[in-house]
Amino acid sequence: LSLPGSHDACTADGWYSKSLGKIAEASAKTQDLTIQEQLKVGMRVFDLRPERVFENSSYMLRCSHGIMGTQLLVREFFQQLKQFLAANPSEFCLLTVDLSATSDKTAWGKEVTELVNSAEFRSMFADFKPRLTVGEMRGHVLMLSCQKYAEQPVGGYCNGWISEKGHKELMKGNITGADGVETPLWVQDFWGKWSREGKDE
């Protein structure tokens, strides 16, 4: 399958910090379409950055790009996916989850675990297995996290997701499901450069 996806998918919903809004627009915005608009035009893979941020005397998971938090909470993002799949039950979505700015990874993992296992969302998520079919995916979301947040993931864990060019390095990854079974993962995601040097080749 070739599935259209978006990098830092939630950055078109505006920024939480009004004082940093102009800086975020210039340095952290990667999408012009909101999640609902992306779903409408065919996006099915979303790069999610669920940072744990302290706001109004409590912590919450906010869709972010590094330290730049968007207006969209992770719970609200999940709700949008759930509504879309309820209205379009033959469709499915994938999430690649990455983390960059949260300092307390233990607390982050606990809050991610509680959210994806909640009564509101658990039935929306498919669990990864090596021969997962399109038929089994319909109406569901497969979440693949590059960070471990619990002993058993909801969806699966991506191990060896790297920013390299060499084919041997790109072939060392795997996806691990909740049952612990590993499936090979080949990654081509040479992002760790400010310039195009090496990307074209």
Q: Extract low-pLDDT stretches.
A: none
Using DSSP, what is the number of strands?
11
The count of helical stretches stands at: 6
What fraction, in percent, of the residue positions are helical? Answer: 10-25%
Radius of gyration: 17 Å
Global morphology: globular
Quickly give the structural class. Answer: alpha/beta
Estimate the strand proportion.
Answer: 25-35%
| Span between termini | 24 Å
What characterizes the major β-sheet? 8 strands, mixed
Mean pLDDT: 93
Helix/strand order: EHHEEEEHEHEHEEHEE
Task: Please explain how this structure is put together.
- The strands form two sheets. Strands 1, 2, 6, 7, 8, 9, 10 and 11 form an eight-stranded mixed β-sheet that branches.
- The protein is α/β, with parallel strands linked by helices and 201 residues long.
- Strand 10 (173-177) and strand 11 (182-185) form a beta hairpin.
- It has helices at 21-27, 35-41, 74-87, 105-116, 134-137, 167-170, and strands spanning 5-6, 45-48, 50-55, 58-65, 68-73, 93-97, 125-126, 141-145, 156-159, 173-177, 182-185.
- Helices cover 24% and strands 25% of the residues.
Which key features would you list for this structure?
201 residues, alpha/beta, eight-stranded mixed β-sheet, three-stranded antiparallel β-sheet, 6 helices, 11 strands, 24% helix, globular
Please give the structural blueprint.
Blueprint: E1 5-6, H1 21-27, H2 35-41, E2 45-48, E3 50-55, E4 58-65, E5 68-73, H3 74-87, E6 93-97, H4 105-116, E7 125-126, H5 134-137, E8 141-145, E9 156-159, H6 167-170, E10 173-177, E11 182-185
Parallel strand pairs: 1-2, 2-6, 6-8, 7-8, 8-9
Antiparallel strand pairs: 3-4, 4-5, 9-10, 10-11
